[in-house]
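call fold(seq) -> C-alpha cells
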Amino acid sequence: MTKNKEPSVWEGFKAFLMRGNVVDLAVAVVIGAAFTNIVNAVVKGIINPVVGAIGTKNLDRYSSCLSTTCEGDQGIRILWGSVLGATLSFVITAAVVYFLMVLPMAKYLARLEARRRAKEGTREIIEVTELEVLKEIRDELVAQRGAGHDRL
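ret:
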C-alpha cells in the first residue's frame, strides 16, 4: 500500500509563481507604476494649467465647506477638487492605455486571426479541389473500364 505524496508548500508556491498569469500580472503592475509617473506629469503639466485658466491651477484647492467657518484647520471641508483630479488622472490613464496599447493590439490580433482564417480557407478550397479532381479521375477510369469491357 503506497501513499501518494502531497506536493510540499514550496513546490506549490513555485508552481503558483511560474504560472503565466502571475508573471503577466507582475509585469502589468510594474509597467503601471512606471506609467503613473507619466500620467501624473500630464495632469500636473497640461490638465491642471488648462483648468487653472478657469480657476486655480491646483485642483486640490477646490473644496466646499460643510460647517459655518472653514478657516485653517477649523470646519469640515469636502475636497472635491482632489476627487476631480484623481478622476481626470484615471480617465487619462484609461484613454492612453486603450488608444496606445489595447486598440492597436486588438487590431493586430484581428489581422493575425484573419490571416489564419484565410490560410485555413485556402487549404479547404485546395483540399476540396483535389478531392473533386480525384473523383473525376476515378469516374473516368470507371467509365474507361466499363467501355473496355463492352468491347471484349
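Helices lie at 9-18, 20-54, 80-151.
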